[in-house]
């Protein structure tokens, strides 16, 4: 019993990756129980550990938390990454929810059939460059601060960085028209906890390899 | 300028209804603007009112809030419907998120093709009775209290009440195996602010009909 949070999920980014990012950014070490087969998921269900029969599930502070947003909100609240008052929280939530819509497209991309991938990627990049990235470029431009909300690191900054880096893996020059996001990315990547998370050997998961896709889909089938 | 929150959406439930429920449960009066044309939506996009070019939009306390969860969380926090500490908030978030997954099925149902409607209805019934309602039946049974979290009225109770009524509209006998939820529904219905919301003439919107579906498709340029 280490007292560390324990994350239950498959060995992919999926819906757990924002949680890994946020814990890492907060400097919190955690353990992972990797689901490899459908039986692994079934066991969690029959043990009664999954409130709605679904993962992600994070054991933290005596709770078995499910639902990505509930988990992220708890971590953000506990580690002071949620703004200083209700209005800052509303801004952070608004930004995070927009990014979550983008993230939803991105996290499914690696599981699309080969013949849909190109069109799917075009849609993701269109939404990213026309709907989402311009918003955050403007936010940073308007206030000139290093962080999105309240001049202080929050879960909005972490989630923005996560999505920027994933987009860049899909299209390296995606930030070409967004100079402030480029400097945001550089600054954030140099913050000690995040720098550590970006190094090899960290809990950060790679993009799933094509050969591994069937096994992963089988877990959730 | 009344100082009341102002809601901008289509004249129907959609993604704004949970917000109407929560404001009403909190006893907060609000104004509504109903969009009828795509031009009106585009105008809002152009004048910078919609951060991600999407509705719902709620103007409240000098902010133009978008994204349902951001709006609901703000209202819950402001009107003390979000528990007393981080752990209660986590429970409320967990319950609300689960219910939202169920509500999502109901939200998209009117837009499913006719051939898929029967199957989608069966999915709603199955998920409600096998995945979601049993959880809340058990929560209420285990602590024996009137409310889901912390023995105190919260956003989770409002969201559950909304979901129960929405599912019952489609599956009238859905609560037959859930005595705790039946009692919960009765108690909630009798709370003054909710009772008022359930009466004719309140901001509560009727179930989606063909006109609503057509309006949404036109304004948001869906298939």
From TrEMBL, chain A:
Gene Ontology molecular-function annotations: glutathione transferase activity
Annotated InterPro entries: Glutathione-S-Trfase_C-like (IPR010987), Glutathione-S-Trfase_C_sf (IPR036282), Glutathione_S-Trfase (IPR040079), Glutathione_S-Trfase_N (IPR004045), GST_alpha (IPR003080), GST_C (IPR004046), GST_superfamily (IPR050213), Thioredoxin-like_sf (IPR036249)
Pfam families the UniProt entry points to: GST_C_3 (PF14497), GST_N (PF02798)
Entry superkingdom: Eukaryota
EC number(s) on file: 2.5.1.18
Keywords assigned by UniProt, alphabetized: Transferase
SUPFAM superfamilies for this protein: GST C-terminal domain-like, Thioredoxin-like
Keyword Amino-acid biosynthesis part of the UniProt annotation: no
Top-level enzyme category: transferase
BP GO annotations: glutathione metabolic process; xenobiotic metabolic process
Gene3D superfamilies with a match to the protein in the record: 1.20.1050.10, Glutaredoxin (3.40.30.10)
Entry similarity comment: Belongs to the GST superfamily. Alpha family.
Name listed for the protein in its UniProt record: glutathione transferase
Organism per entry: Gallus gallus (Chicken)
Gene name as annotated: LOC395611
From TrEMBL, chain B:
Domain GST C-terminal residue range list: 85-209
CDD domains (UniProt xref): GST_C_Alpha
Key words, A-Z: Transferase
InterPro entries: Glutathione-S-Trfase_C-like, Glutathione-S-Trfase_C_sf, Glutathione_S-Trfase, Glutathione_S-Trfase_N, GST_alpha, GST_C, GST_superfamily, Thioredoxin-like_sf
Top class in the EC scheme: transferase
Nucleotide-binding among keywords: no
Superkingdom classification of source: Eukaryota
Gene Ontology MF terms in the entry: glutathione transferase activity
Location of the GST N-terminal domain: 3-83
A Pfam family assignment: GST_N
SUPFAM superfamilies reported in the protein's UniProt record: GST C-terminal domain-like, Thioredoxin-like
Family: Belongs to the GST superfamily. Alpha family.
Protein's recorded name: glutathione transferase
Gene: GSTA3
């Amino acid at each position: 019993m280490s007292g560390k949070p324990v994350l239950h999920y498959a060995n992919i980014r999926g819906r757990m990756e924002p949680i890994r990012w946020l814990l890492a950014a907060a400097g919190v070490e955690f353990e992972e129980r990797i689901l490899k087969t459908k039986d692994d998921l079934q066991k969690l269900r029959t043990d009664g550990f999954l409130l709605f029969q679904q993962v992600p599930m994070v054991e933290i502070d005596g709770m078995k938390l499910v639902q990505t947003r509930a988990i992220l909100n708890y971590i953000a609240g506990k580690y002071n990454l949620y703004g200083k008052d209700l209005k800052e929280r509303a801004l952070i939530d608004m930004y995070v929810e927009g990014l979550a819509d983008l993230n939803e497209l991105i996290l499914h991309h690696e599981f699309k059939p080969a013949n849909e991938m190109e069109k799917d990627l075009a849609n993701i990049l269109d939404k990213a460059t026309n709907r989402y990235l311009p918003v955050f470029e403007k936010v940073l431009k308007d206030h000139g601060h290093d962080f999105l909300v309240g001049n202080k690191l929050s879960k909005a900054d972490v989630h923005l960085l996560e999505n920027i880096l994933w987009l860049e893996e899909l299209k390296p020059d995606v930030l070409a028209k967004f100079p402030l996001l480029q400097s945001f990315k550089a600054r954030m990547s140099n913050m000690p906890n995040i720098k550590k998370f970006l190094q090899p050997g960290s809990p950060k998961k790679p993009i799933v390899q094509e050969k591994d896709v069937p096994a992963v889909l089988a877990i959730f089938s | 300028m009344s100082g009341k929150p102002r809601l901008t959406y289509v004249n129907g439930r959609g993604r704004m209804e949970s917000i109407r429920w929560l404001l009403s449960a909190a006893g907060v009066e609000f104004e509504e603007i109903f969009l009828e044309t795509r031009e009106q939506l585009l105008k809002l996009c152009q004048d910078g009112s919609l951060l991600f070019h999407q509705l719902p939009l709620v103007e409240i306390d000098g902010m133009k809030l978008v994204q349902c969860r951001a709006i609901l969380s703000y209202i819950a926090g402001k009107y003390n419907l979000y528990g007393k500490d981080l752990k209660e908030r986590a429970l409320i978030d967990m319950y609300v998120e689960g219910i939202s997954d169920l509500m999502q099925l109901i939200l998209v149902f009117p837009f499913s093709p006719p051939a898929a409607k029967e199957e989608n209805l069966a999915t709603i019934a199955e998920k409600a009775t096998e995945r979601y309602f049993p959880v809340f039946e058990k929560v209420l049974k285990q602590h024996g209290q009137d409310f889901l979290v912390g023995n105190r009225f919260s956003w989770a109770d409002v969201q559950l009440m909304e979901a129960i009524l929405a599912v019952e509209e489609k599956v009238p006998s859905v609560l037959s195996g859930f005595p705790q939820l039946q009692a919960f529904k009765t108690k909630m219905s009798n709370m003054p602010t909710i009772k008022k919301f359930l009466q004719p003439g309140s901001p509560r919107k009727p179930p989606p009909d063909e006109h609503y579906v057509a309006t949404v498709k036109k304004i948001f340029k869906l298939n």
